[in-house]
Amino acid sequence: MLEEKAPAQMRSLFHIQLRKVLALAVTVAALVAMLPTGASADWWETMVEDFMDTGPEPEPDPYADLETEKDWIRSFGNLELSGNCREDVIAIAKTQLGYTRSYKNFDVGGLWDGYGYTRYGAWFGYPYADWCAMFVSFCIHYAGITPREFPYDAVCQSWVNTLQKQGRFEMMKDHEPEPGDIVFFDYDDGKADHVGIVVDFDRETAQLKTIEGNHSDSVQEFTYYDYWSCRFIHGYGILPDSIENPPKYELTTGPAGPE
User: Measured over all CA atoms, what is the biggest interatomic distance in the chain, rounded to whole angstroms?
Assistant: First the structure.
């Protein structure tokens, strides 16, 4: 998944990559110093193979990190929902911060080869897949909003298409973001590639704060700077204002969730 980094994040990423390049250069220099006079191509090839050999690929554990709905509800704590859709979706999303996809339980050889298990994919029915949209759908569902009130989806552009048909989507140029908006990103092809939840927007500082899943394999909060110059925000899904009788969750038990 492509990412838009804030300036400080960009600098940090640059320094990390620079250190990696320097470490690689030192390693290559050491290998060259070890090269005997008149060494053959076969010797050189063997040295490179030995250096690159990291051992056997790890085997997936199909039982690792599995969860049930009780585990998901337990992650909400004793969260009290208000019935305000925007506030409640953000509240659910904040309880998920720090969640990371499984590195032990992952798909091998299938459509999503290498993708790790997530609770959001398990809830939606695709435990090994891109999961940014399923994360947002999960938060909407457990905020008590049914698909009749706001649809769920696992694919960003498909979700945008449905929301447009229902009159619940606004392009960036036509809408100023509000907390609780569902923000869709387009990085390269005119179609939505990624999605998150707006937590806050400061018009004066032009900073947009979001919570996003499948961002560096985890649920994280991000700040996007210089909003008015952003070229990668596609548009926004608009949640309903409120619902009656929001669900109630407890630490050890809870409802099955809205139908």
Answer: 81
